[in-house]
Amino acid sequence: MAAEARILGHGGMRAVARAAQVSETTVPKGVDELEAGEEPLGRVRRPGGGRKKAADLAPGLRPALLALVEPDERGDPMSPLRWTVKSTRILAAELTHQGHRVSADTVGDLLHEEGFSLQAGAKTIEGKFRDAQFRYINGQARQHIDASQPVISVDTKKKELVGDYSDPVRDL
Fold this sequence. Notes:
By secondary structure, the chain is mostly helical. Among the domains are: 2-36, no CATH class; 54-118, no CATH class. It has 8 helices and 2 strands, in the order H-H-H-H-H-E-H-H-E-H. It has helices spanning 2-8, 12-20, 26-36, 54-57, 61-69, 88-97, 104-113, 128-146, and strands spanning 82-84, 116-118. It has a two-stranded parallel ribbon with strand order 1-2. Helix 1 (2-8) crosses helix 2, helix 1 packs across helix 3 and helix 6 (88-97) crosses helix 7 (104-113).
């Protein structure tokens, strides 16, 4: 960038900084290095510099997030794809209430790192009874897993007749 800025002459540093989408102070530092005959550093910021990630600053953040998402985790149990329909804003508010100051964007980043994708709910009305059923089943499965007992997950669908069936179906 420094060499290009020198070739462009007056206003070249600003033009190169904008084109490269870097700080306007970065290019003059490079020009100074170039004129001093120093080897380029490759990067201006020292290794380890910059803001630390929220998960690194608060080691309990990731487990707290997973504890909030786990009961409502969705996805095929045989597939590595996992998703949640909980809003990142709601999750961030709950984590903040628990003492972890975190933004919705950071929650989204952490979920992505854990292999989750964010999905809107396919059904807008799921009903309290259906939700209660799944929470009960999830609690039972968790108890059996904690007791080192096997748990089998079976996903079935209600079968309905399609078409005009006036006669009852008979087994032959």
